Amino acid sequence: MWDILKRQWILHIKENPLTYLLIVFVFTTGIMAGAFTVISLSSQQKLNVSIFLQEFFNSQRSVSINRWAIFKESLWQHFVTVFFIWFFGIFVWGSPFILTIIGIRGFSFGFTIGFMVEYYRFGGFLFSLVCILPQSIVYVPCYIGIGIISMLFSLKKNRRRDKVSQYTTRVAIVFLILLVGIFIETFISPFLFPLFIWIFR
User: What is the pTM of this model?
Assistant: First the structure.
């Protein structure tokens, strides 16, 4: 089963190399833009972000957190993002909007990791590796996958109802995989936060 899926995926890449390259390029560019934005922040701006993070992690220790409420909020945010990617994929003119959303997701990822490493140095690197990377391993390929699926459908001329249904099903399947990342971010990563309290003091 895995070998069949692997062969189909490799064949799909060979048939649509430009789309894959474009989505990956846009996402990577977003990451780089986010990282460079961190470098361009003033010392006061960096201090403000660090104060916000410190208050956030202090609240994690002192207040009982409703993880299911956070899960639902994160689920809603990701659902809205995926919905708009899916929506723009229905239209021929939707490609620039799909690329913009993918670029924004990359920017967010790059800014977060970039700030942690640039401001907190080795401690920020460890925090990113342990508390941010696990869910990102799920998020990044899922958003790239949804972006590719939507871009390819946006460029198609055949838009029969059954084709739209197939397109929607593919996006929905990837979104279900995305739920794994949301679960990790909400229920697993927070339990590792206490290991890094020393960073945010």
Answer: 0.88
- Residue 59 has a pLDDT of 65
Report the alpha-carbon distance of residue 195 to residue 131 in Å, rounded. 10
- How many CB atoms are closer than 10 A to CB 61? 10
Average pLDDT by consecutive 10-residue portion of the chain (201 residues)?
68 84 95 92 84 72 71 94 95 93 95 90 89 93 94 79 85 95 90 78 67
Query: Which of 153, 160, 194 has its CA nearest to residue 174?
Result: 153
- Token digits for 60? 């994690």
- The residue among 103, 132, 124, 115 whose CA lies nearest residue 41 is 115
Structure-token pair, residue 8 = 């189909």
pLDDT for res 158: 64
Q: Is 86 helix (H, G, I), strand (E, B) or coil?
A: helix
- Distance of alpha carbon 42 from the chain centroid: 26
Position 12 scores a pLDDT of 75
Question: Cα–Cα distance between 128 and 39 in angstroms, integer?
Answer: 17
Please tell me the distance from the alpha carbon of residue 130 to that of residue 137, in angstroms, as a whole number: 12
| Residues 200, 54 contacting (CB under 8 angstroms) | yes
Return the exposure string of 129-144: e unless at least 16 CB atoms fall within 10 Å of the residue's CB, then b.
eebbebbbebbbebbb
Q: Domain coordinates of the chain in residue numbers?
A: 19-200
